[in-house]
Model the fold of this input.
Amino acid sequence: MSATNLKCRECGSVYELDPIYVCERCFGPLEVGYDNSALSRDIPELRRRIQGGPQNLWRYSDFLPLPDGPPAPSGRNSSRVGLAAGCTPLIRADRLAERLGLGEVWVKNDAANPTHSFKDRVVSVAAARARAFGFEVLACASTGNLANSVAANAAALGMVSYVFIPADLEAQKILATGVYGTNLVKVRGNYDDVNRLCMELSGERNWAFVNVNLRPYYAEGSKTIAYEIGEQLGWRTPDRIVSPVASGSLFTKIGKGFADWLDLGLLEGELPTMNGAQAAGCSPVATAWAEGRDFCQPVKPNTIAKSLAIGNPADGPYALELAKSSDGSIDSVTDDEIRAGIRLLAETTGVFTETAGGVTVATLAKLAERGEIGRDESVVAVITGDGLKTLDAVRGSFESFEIEPTFGEFTSKVEASLVGVQ
Ligand SMILES: *Cc1c(COP(=O)(O)O)cnc(C)c1O
Ligand SMILES: [Zn+2]
Done:
């Protein structure tokens, strides 16, 4: 399967594989088109080939818009260098399932990527393409995790980078970006202001903005989560996916990844029911869903889930379409529910997620409570980022003891106060 062109999602106009992202005719978004006529129809052979690939997302090179064909045996002189994203754990979460009254629940832990969020997948693909286009500067408009990933990937590839973020981002994310030696630009405004500035800059500077002029390539990286889940479940689809929605790109591309592989015959099963998750403080897609609209009205974000704080989501309409066609939904949860979701996941699985993961788990809990999930269903919760990125969200959510270093202090202050608790 090789990438052949860019295609407008609205009017179908076709373009060359260039660093462009909007249709000249209708201003619709462009998406990568593929030709899979050269791909083997021998499914066992195709699966073996994937399994024999590298232990990272480049094992799915055949299904990504990479510039230079199949992987070079040595991995050198190929675009596929730098940080090795992907192949993150899929964890069976029986205690979480039990707490929610569900049967089969899995956690896809994408916090286990090199910069601790799923963004390494999309940046890997965009950076490979950027290098092939001859760009020397990698850039992005970020809600936080993309900043981490662009700065780190640029460092790994020896590229210069410019990273634009809202000035009020979490301290942890700012520190974990600046450390890579990027040009870090804090913009006084929200993500949508940052994005508007970057769209203007991408017209004025010959830079690869991974999520602006390289967005069609960037977006394809998210399909690899679906491929991995399918492979990890033994070449079958789960019944249901719960995934966070910011711009809607991740959510829609997970759907596309499963659809591609079902079409090819690589996976058994059916398209999963797709449940999107947003924070109530920034829920343009969930609100459109609740009101039965097929378009989103922009909002001003105000939520602790800053990585999902996109008030004007580019792929909102496609996320709505996918939720509808897969018999799913797009829900929203409050900041308190997000905090509770983080704790619930941590206590039942040992996985500490950032606020976006709290949104996902809280939404899963909400769906379970509403009785929408059958006990015989297999459900995958997509955990997209690490809890160390948003430590403030759990501050004050638990008690601890401080004592003098004596046995007496331990029994009188710790054990005595725990009597009756356990
Ligand atoms: C970017 C991001 C998402 C999803 O973003 P989309 O714009 O919808 O693709 C989800 N979770 C985290 C932690 C993110 O950083
Ligand atoms: Zn068009």
In short: The first strand starts at residue 2 and ends at 8. The chain is about 35% helix and 15% strand. The mean pLDDT is 94.
